Amino acid sequence: MTLVVLDINEDKEKTSQVITIINELIPKIKEVLNEEFIFNFDKFDCFESVKKAKVIYAKMLEDENHYKLKSITNLIIKGLIEGNILSKDNIKYLNISEEYSDGELIYTIKFHTTLLNLKYLNKALKAENKPADKKEFDASDILNCIKDIKFPECQIDKINLCAMREDQISGKYEVVHCFNLL
Length: 182
Hints:
This protein has five helices and nine strands, in the order αβββααβββααβββ. With about 180 residues, it is of the alpha+beta class. It is globular and about 45 Å long. The mean pLDDT is about 85. It has helices at about 10-35, 65-80, 90-95, 120-125, 140-145; strands at about 35-40, 40-45, 55-60, 95-100, 105-110, 110-115, 155, 160-165, 175-180. The chain has a three-stranded antiparallel beta sheet with strand order 2-3-6. α1 packs antiparallel against α2 (about 65-80). Helix content is about 35%, strand content about 30%. β8 and β9 form a beta hairpin.
C-alpha cells in the first residue's frame, strides 16, 4: 500500500534525507501502532468513473486501524514537509488532501491496494505484441464479478522506501530501504 509518492529515484542525498526523517519518526509511528497492526479492505472501486476506468483498487475499511494509518501517514508527510522534501506544490500534485481536525492541519490520502492499472496492462500486452493503446475501460463487468471477494486481513510490519522503477528480478518496486515496525 502506498503512503506517499516522492520523486527521489536517482538523488542519493534526498534519499538519505528521507531515510533519516523516517528513522526519526519510527518511535512515534510505533507509539501510534501500539501493538500489531492489522487492517481490512472494504470494497472494490475505480479512481475514475466506472465507465472510464484506468485503475481498479481495493479500498481500506474505515475502522480504528484506518485512522491509525491516517495518523502515521500524516506524521510522515509532515516530517517530509519539515525536512523540505515535500512542498505545498508536491502535495496537490500527489493527490494528498488537506483537512482540519480540532484546528490541526491533517494530510491524508486514499488508502488502497491497486488490483488493475491500465498502464501496466498495456505494458504486458505490448510485451506480447498485442494492441496496447487502451486509455480507459468500462469496469462494470469486472467490479460485478469481484464484488463478493473478501481480502484476508493484512498486517503492516514494515514501511518500504521504494524507487519508482521495477526490480528486474521480481517486477515489483525496487526497495531502497526497509523500516521495521515490530
